[in-house]
Amino acid sequence: MKILVIEDEPDIRKNLEYNLAREGFSVSGAASILEAKTLLSSDDFNLILLDLMLPDGSGLDLCKEIKANSKTESTPVIILTAKDDEVDKVVGFEIGADDYVTKPFSVRELILRVKAVLKRGTKKKEILEVERKFGDLKIDIDSHEVHVDDVKINLTALEFRLLRKLVDTRGRVQSRDQLLTDVWGYSTEVTTRTVDTHVKRLREKLGPMGRYVQTIRGVGYKFARTPD
Question: In this structure, are 97 and 147 located in the same domain?
């Protein structure tokens, strides 16, 4: 498995390269967007760790380019940043980032997240036909398409998995830890607000169907059992 670390702080980059290599990954490093683009054009990577603030531009802009390129659009991206801004997180997820880690972070936790993201990408595709229907909501599992009242809703891969999980378990409360395990593939040792960020954005995208994603205070979330 090849990982590209795009990070302009030498100590952080070398630390990540060393620890990822110890886990058996083949690691390349870049200190700028220019260096990263050169590496991306000449090699294929299984995952990208991307610093948000780089000397020659924004990591968000680079992430957008990566996801718009047919060669790299399916490559998972985990954003690394010293900023802890909810808006940046939402933007990052919107343009296709798979996770968002705020500095300072635990290298051990980051490696758990890397493994979880890679594991999601290698899961076998389910061959069950299948379309989920709930009132005006339609979920096509095979094509990864979602429609509300026959209008296509653009969801990220994580948002799609989250929606599918909630709909498949409708009427039953899913704790944040359970969602982290089943949707993100994380160990419950990992603490994150990623679930709340995704649920909030998912509700907004679903429009009138968003009200069926219900918050159970102090527990987690559930999808309503039946449409009104």
Answer: no
